[in-house]
Predict the 3D structure of the following.
Amino acid sequence: MSTMKAAVLYTAGPAENLKVESRPIPTPKSGEVLIRVKAFGLNRSELFTRQGHSPGVKFPRILGIEAVGLVEEAPETDFKKGDIVATAMGGMGRDRDGGYAEYTCVSAKQVQALQTNIPWETLGAIPEMLQTAWGSLFKSLRLQKGDKLLIRGGTTSVGLAAASIAENYGAFVAATTRSDSRTALLKASGVNEVFLDPSGTIASSVRAAHPSGFDKVLEMIGVTTLADSMACCAEGGITCMTGIVGNKWSYDSFNPMEGIPTAVCLTSYSGGPEDFMQTPLEKLVQQIEKGTLKIQVGKVFGLDEIVEAQRVMEENRAGGKIVVLT
């Protein structure tokens, strides 16, 4: 039986629990696509699974909720061997083995074919990141041209992608960072205004600069800053919680009458395979090729370096999307 290299998690715990070993190459059933993985991005949900915060996951498990690569086999589908494809979600890395491997097998219903020549380290960054950024902006926040958008946690990979997409779309984009050293990174991604956020409280400084508040607020930190982010939102505006890089999943207690400002809408975004398939990846890839959509790849690793890659993600040291090449 042919084998592949894969990063396997046998028990939840530290990054060192990921073991690179040989595994059988999966065999696709009718309607499935076997992808020869060329690259995959790291995602915070994988960190949480590795830490043991995904109780439904059974071990051993190959993590990874996304991958890009070449079609190897695709019985009874419209895909052909050699097609460049991207996949994400659909239980990858949770209900079934995911993208931390040289091959992964997924439903054809969660695969997009792409016509592109951009390098794998860039392509590997985009499936989940762009799906999340696009869905947050246009499905949950209902972004309109001319809107004023505030991204809380602007230097996250999704925050940087959202800034570039929103600026291209015609929005005014502001973003927060804890360190002034990240200002240039934000500006390069399309951010028009930067708010320093060393303490997790910026509403007063935001209101001083924009008395009526922002039309839309994208929350990437989570519940540790969500109330303050809603206080930055204009009446009739929307705040969307998408990220939890603050590593806190929920409030200890929450009173909506006190926590949600008058006439401010609170929503969230957590995309599934249908949302991934609705994301115009081909259009966004064309913008990347033209240089109009800027993708910030933070660090690139090999599959044998998966432990260090996870450490860098856990410690927020990437400065952009972490990509692993196989």
